[in-house]
Give the backbone structure.
Amino acid sequence: MEKDVLEQRARAFDYLFDAVVVTDLEGLIIDWNHGSEALYGYTRDEAIGQPVSMLHVPEDIDRITSEVLDAVGREGKWAGEVRMQHKDGSHGWIESVCIPLLGDDGQMIGALGINRDISERRRHQERLQELAHYDQLTGLPNRHLLIERVEQAIAGARRHQSVFGLLFIDLDNFKEINDREGHSGGDAALRQVAKCLKGSLRETDTVARIGGDEFVVLLHDIGSADKAEHMAGYLVTQLRDVCEMNALAHELTASIGIATYPRNGETMDELLRASDQAMYRAKQNGKNTYEF
């Protein structure tokens, strides 16, 4: 199939909103429709002769190339959703289909890709995902995401015979903050507490807000219960100091209950119940402390 025939075929798509990109075997762009100009920001003259990789986010190029070649070799086409890079450097998402172009001898001489902008749809999906898994006040994972991560931790601990910890944190005297400062003051206190907890943990750990003034910390691969106890003591001190420094309220402290896998339970419910009960013992023992 001659190049001018390919170009005529690609130009037939100029009346579509979709972006149509034609490349040769070296991955160089040989045709480019109006939809491509609108999607990527390059004029036809700017795009022709350039590597098609300029349309992808740099860190995705190797993976996309491998996936496309593998799928085309097995199924004769590739389809999927990938990130795209606009001329101005901004990123978006496209839904793409790529098919090989064959010469008269049946050999592949290039490829044709049809790409549709789905950036708005992806943003909507990500927003729904955020609403489903994250607390809107503090930005922390919520109960649903915590459950998922604890279930994953249980599966991993069973496989590797490892230990992890769960810390159930309840703020002391939080109702007094709400009564005195109003809900806006209470919300500010919760955000500050969330920031403190997140900043005190390793990147591999999780802190979630599961409701009201209750937080749960998942400590991965701690080796022994001693490390969970050390972290609980550290957090008691950190929360008290942070609240004082930010003038939230000197009496806003925390009571923490500690449970470890598999010693205190082998399911999410057992571990959460054990840490919750330990937290109540900390409350009964004067608050501003922790208990196993």
Summary: The chain has a mean pLDDT of 88. The first helix runs from residue 3 to 11. Strands lie at 19-24, 29-32, 78-85, 91-102, 108-117, 164-171, 206-211, 214-219, 254-261, 290-291. The CA atoms of residues 206 and 240 lie 20 Å apart.
